[in-house]
Amino acid sequence: MDQHQHKYQLKYKVSISGAAITDHCGSNAVEMAEEVGRELARRGVVVITGATTGIPYWAAKGAKEEGGFVIGYSPAASEASHVKTYRLPIDYHDIILFTGFEYTGRNLFIVRSADAMITICGRMGTLNEFTIAFEEKKPVGVLLGSGGTADSVQEIIQRANRGPGKIAYDSDPKRLVEKVIALIEEEKKG
Prior knowledge:
Blueprint: E1 13-18, H1 29-42, E2 46-49, H2 55-65, E3 70-74, H3 79-85, E4 95-98, H4 102-112, E5 116-120, H5 124-135, E6 140-143, H6 153-160, E7 167-170, H7 173-189
Parallel strand pairs: 1-2, 1-5, 2-3, 3-4, 5-6, 6-7
Helix pairs in contact: 1-2, 1-7, 4-5
C-alpha cells in the first residue's frame, strides 16, 4: 500500500468574492450571500473570504450559522492592524491569516488557495479576484441579480475574447453552489 494514500478526502474550498461596501448591490444581495455561505457549509465546503466587511462577511456569517468552517485572508500583517488600521471584523471566521500584502496581494492568496470562487455583487477588487481566477483557470460561480461586478461578468467575458472560462451562472444561491461543486468535481477528475 502506498504510504501516501489516505482514507479521507480533503474538503473542497470555495472563496467568496464580493463588495465590501454593499450600497450598490442588489436589494437582496446580503441575503443571497448568507444563503451561499449556508449552502456551502451544508455541503461540508470550507469557505474562504478576504476577512472583510460586506458580501464576504455575510457569506461567512451564513456558513458559521450552519456550523461551517471559514478561513479569512487579511490584507493586514497582524490582528492589531487588521482591526485598528484596516477596521476589519474578526467574527464569523475560524482562522484569519494575516498576509501583510495589502488588498491586491491578499487577493492572490484568496484565489489560489481555493478550489473555486463565487462572485456576488462586487466592485473593482471583486473584478481583480475574478480576473485572477479566470487567468488561473479556476472554476467560478457568478450570482446573477446580486448587482455590481457579478452582473457585468458575462459582458466582460464576451468583450475579452478569451473564451468562456470555467464559469457557472445562476440567480439562485443553492443552484449556483451545486453548479460550482460540479465544476470542482469535473476539475478533480482531470
